[in-house]
Amino acid sequence: MEHVVIIGGGPAGLTAGWELARLGHTAAQVFEKDHIVGGIARTDVYKGYRFDIGGHRFFTKVTLVEEIWEEILGSQLLTRPRLSRIFYNSTFFDYPLKPLNALGGLGLVESARVGLSFLYAQAFPIRNEQTFDEWVTNRFGRRLFEIFFETYTEKVWGIPCTEIGADWAAQRIKNLDLVQAVKAALLGQRGQTKGEVITTLIEQFKYPRLGPGQMWESCRDQLADKGIPTHMGTEVVRLERVEQRIVAVVVRDQDGERRVEGTEFISSMPIRQLVAAMDPPAPEEVQVAAASLKYRDFLTVVLIVKNPDLFPDNWIYIHSPAVRLGRVQNFKNWSPEMVPDEGTSALGLEYFVNVGDDLWSMSDEDLVALGTKECALLGLVQAEEVFDGCVVRMPKAYPVYDMDYQATLATLRGWLDPIENLQLVGRNGQHRYNNQDHSMLTAVYAARNIADGGSYELWSVNVEEEYHEEVRDGEARGATGDRMLPQRIDGLEAARVVRDAYARFDPLALGVAVGLLIGALTFLLTAVPLARGIVVEGMILSSLAAYLPGYEVSWPGAVFGSLAGSVGGFLFGSALAVSINTFVKWHGLALLRRLEHAKALDPE
Ligand SMILES: Cc1cc2nc3c(=O)[nH]c(=O)nc-3n(C[C@H](O)[C@H](O)[C@H](O)COP(=O)(O)OP(=O)(O)OC[C@H]3O[C@@H](n4cnc5c(N)ncnc54)[C@H](O)[C@@H]3O)c2cc1C
Q1: Residue nearest atom 34 of ligand 1, based on CA coordinates
Q2: Would you say residue 264 lies in a domain?
Q3: What's the number of domains the chain is made of?
Q4: Domain final residue pick, 201, 228, 257
Q5: Does 89 fall in a domain?
Q6: Which helix (H) or strand (E) is 408 found in, with range?
Q7: Where are the beta strands (DSSP E) in 213-280?
Q8: pTM score
């Protein structure tokens, strides 16, 4: 029987063990470097308060995965209602956005702004849209983009929307069509088969009674009963390779290092570390490629609050640019048993960060103070109600798909794939933006390849788009099956410099300004002689009637004329702005072409 070494006790590693055991193959052991299982899907505990690294919903379209969850936890897996809203400008908005709710929450003036900017975007779309902001603006208008898309996207990815490719917006937002959203709001999800459910609109999900970690703690314990141990606090630091086979791993725990031999190896550790741990080392170019893989990191500030009932949501998206906080979890609403004292609540404040940046390096005390201040500023808690808190930092929470990652992965796979007895599974194990279900599926297939003589291709496990987004089954995906992440666009730099060098006019603003000016002038010019009683027949003012329908030198005429003047002025102002912008754009393009021409003649 093959002796299987499994690296990592997260969802992928433990699922590999689960499937091996199910197939009767118990010559296996799991090595987990932390003292807690579940990886990113763990549940941490602080003074009896339980919390996730982000909220972890259990939702999948993969029946096999659903069966495993049921097998592991049975009745401990609860079905929970979902409520998540967007918080902007002291107002809650439904998430996913519902048109009437959004407009109602924004108020009359802001709604008018949104409406006008939407109409403007329809009339004058940005041609050749290349960036996230351009894509969204073209479909929803600039104002709606600023309110509901810009701040949150930039918080999560740390990249300006002007530097994120339009293709990501297209993939992320395309199916949130208004008709579907309105229909779901009115009729619920009835009549749809499971595969057709739009995942943004899912109204309930499965969740373990004691948080996601309960799933993985129970899995580890049941595996131990079946003869597959999980060695906690034990890090794999080296993989010994002889030609195209791994023969052993070196693990380090509190007692030092030891060598563990195996005949099959399943790795869910980040590829970057895996390659760096190879002995003898991988070729130089492979090491360089692995070192270039990037990640977005994450930290949660937990606030313990003396208030039993803060808000009904599972989580809230924070769109306010005034705070750095991206999302707030209310763990009690995920499962009441996440808090030990009914009279209190525990919030998880999520900050999207990079290891080493100012937030990451801030002391826990300062982070709790910052979180308290931001929540109080938003009006979500009273600062004096917060009586305790803690911080959990999670490096490598998101594998980043930058412009080079596919080429990098190709290089890495070119070297790793020929290693006969090594299989890469999971999220960072494959550098894929997998949720638990697809992380688990890769592990199930890896186990079957070993215990069942299967020939599953782990890299082609279909990777689905984010469940927070909107996806229907059977949709076309990228050629690699990858879920996309925002990519920074480098080639736009010169175009941007040229574009930013010229002032551009906002047609809406210029239209409103000119319209108001002409309307007011028309009214005043007529009102003054009328008020002074110096109106004479045939005065030059009456010739305005030729240009302004309804105008005459009388009080009603002044009102009608100024209205007509406002409309005419608006159209004139907008047209003027568009003409100037078109000319400027044309001039900029000509300049760019000249630049490119010069560059072609003199490449470096
Ligand atoms: C904010 C956030 C929210 C999310 N929400 C959801 C959600 O709602 N639903 C959902 O299904 N998924 C969600 N996910 C995704 C989910 O967390 C991952 O899909 C899942 O945890 C991946 O499992 P994994 O085993 O591949 O990797 P990990 O969870 O990263 O586990 C890998 C394990 O390997 C261990 N390890 C690493 N290196 C070594 C080594 N050298 N030696 C020994 N052990 C090692 C690590 O300590 C870790 O325990 C979310 C992720 C994030 C960041």
Answers
A1: 8
A2: yes
A3: 4
A4: 201
A5: no
A6: helix 405-416
A7: 230-231, 235-242, 245-253, 256-261, 264-267, 278-279
A8: 0.76
